[in-house]
């Protein structure tokens, strides 16, 4: 059975008629606690797969670490209540973490729930370089990759996905989760791990199956990705942050169509 799903016996309505009971596949949702050096920091509702990459990605996008090398180990422990992800940080990073007064109550739909002050949300991100150039015509199969990585979503219709493509539209990696932020964190964690192992800055774009909200742009830009595509709309704060950070933001992406909100010079037609 695919990791992250469970069968339930249900009744369905079809054409106004109640059908006989049958098994239906549902996405698994579990509380996942991220515990740094023995101290619980946050609990997020997530699909219980690829949690090692989630731990890395969350740690990077929340500025708990600056480099994957500052994580010494990751241990995943299943409990009766949920899943504990134990992350061992360097002493320096853990001391900095303890100085932050954070009390996050993770929710599926919001990536900044529980943040105490506005200043914690609206943080400066250094402007990105403009090294990446793409041809929109190279991405005519990009949407297919979103569904290909949804092994849980394909059976349940209940997950978001985020994929990493190279500058010519080839698939590199992709992850899914019930939470769009968690799917993106998993992908960014994988990307950071691969770049650490190869000692290379692998260029590419990120495509997400959701809207482009402020925190999605923030996570992407913070990890040095220059181009973000979303299948739905962008919000005002997302566009403003993309401009400030020099990120190319595209919404309503449909293979070779889309709305380029910021920094269109990275994209050509042919």
UniProtKB/TrEMBL annotation:
<comment type="similarity">
    <text>Belongs to the FdhD family.</text>
</comment>
<keyword id="KW-0963">Cytoplasm</keyword>
<dbReference type="GO" id="GO:0097163">
    <property type="term" value="F:sulfur carrier activity"/>
</dbReference>
<protein>
    <recommendedName>
        <fullName>Sulfur carrier protein FdhD</fullName>
    </recommendedName>
</protein>
<dbReference type="InterPro" id="IPR003786">
    <property type="entry name" value="FdhD"/>
</dbReference>
<dbReference type="Pfam" id="PF02634">
    <property type="entry name" value="FdhD-NarQ"/>
</dbReference>
<feature type="active site" description="Cysteine persulfide intermediate">
    <location>
        <position position="110"/>
    </location>
</feature>
<dbReference type="GO" id="GO:0005737">
    <property type="term" value="C:cytoplasm"/>
</dbReference>
<comment type="function">
    <text>Required for formate dehydrogenase (FDH) activity. Acts as a sulfur carrier protein that transfers sulfur from IscS to the molybdenum cofactor prior to its insertion into FDH.</text>
</comment>
<keyword id="KW-0501">Molybdenum cofactor biosynthesis</keyword>
<dbReference type="InterPro" id="IPR016193">
    <property type="entry name" value="Cytidine_deaminase-like"/>
</dbReference>
<keyword id="KW-0808">Transferase</keyword>
<dbReference type="GO" id="GO:0016783">
    <property type="term" value="F:sulfurtransferase activity"/>
</dbReference>
<dbReference type="GO" id="GO:0006777">
    <property type="term" value="P:Mo-molybdopterin cofactor biosynthetic process"/>
</dbReference>
């Amino acid at each position: 059975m695919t990791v992250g799903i469970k069968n339930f016996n249900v009744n369905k309505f079809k054409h106004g008629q109640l059908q006989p009971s049958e098994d239906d596949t549902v996405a698994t949702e579990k509380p996942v606690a991220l515990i740094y050096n023995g101290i619980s920091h946050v609990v997020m509702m997530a699909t219980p797969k690829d949690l090692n990459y989630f731990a890395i990605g969350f740690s990077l996008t929340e500025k708990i670490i600056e480099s994957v090398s500052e994580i010494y180990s990751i241990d995943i422990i299943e409990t009766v209540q949920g899943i504990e992800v134990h992350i061992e940080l360097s002493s320096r990073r853990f001391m900095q973490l303890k100085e932050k007064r954070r009390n996050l109550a993770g929710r599926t739909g919001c990536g900044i729930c529980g943040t105490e002050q506005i200043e914690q949300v609206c943080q400066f991100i250094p402007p990105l370089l403009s090294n990446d150039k793409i041809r929109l015509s190279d991405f005519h199969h990009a949407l297919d990759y979103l569904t290909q990585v949804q092994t849980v979503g394909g059976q349940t219709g209940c997950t978001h996905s985020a994929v990493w493509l190279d500058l010519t539209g080839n698939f590199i990696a992709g992850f899914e989760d019930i939470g769009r932020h968690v799917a993106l964190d998993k992908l960014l964690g994988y990307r950071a791990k691969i770049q650490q192992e190869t000692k290379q800055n692998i260029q590419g774009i990120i495509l997400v199956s959701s809207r482009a909200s402020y925190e999605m742009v923030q996570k992407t830009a913070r990890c040095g990705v220059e181009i973000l595509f979303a299948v739905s709309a962008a919000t005002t704060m997302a566009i403003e942050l993309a401009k400030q950070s020099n990120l190319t933001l595209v919404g309503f992406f449909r293979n070779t169509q889309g709305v380029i909100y910021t920094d269109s010079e990275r994209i050509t037609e042919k």
